[in-house]
Description:
Layout: H1 8-23, E1 30-31, H2 35-42, H3 46-49, E2 56-57, H4 60-75
Parallel strand pairs: 1-2
Amino acid sequence: EAMSYLDATAAxxxxxxxxxxxxxxxxxxxxxxxxxxxxxxxxxxxGQGATRALPAFPSVRQAHAHAEEKLALQRGxxxxxxxxxxG
Length: 87
């Protein structure tokens, strides 16, 4: 959110991070990204366009909820709440 501009070096670095994380079975999620920065990531040619389809969320809470749900689906525990008895 604090960034309002993305230069070529930053775009290339984020693309490489995205590729590296995917290689480890992880996904980079974006939250509260300013429109000019998101537009730059969507147009980013580095890493074969690795940042073009990164999921972007209006809040960190929504990004976290997405990540938790995706992990639960991968584990086969969707809808399971370990904090809730019997859940």
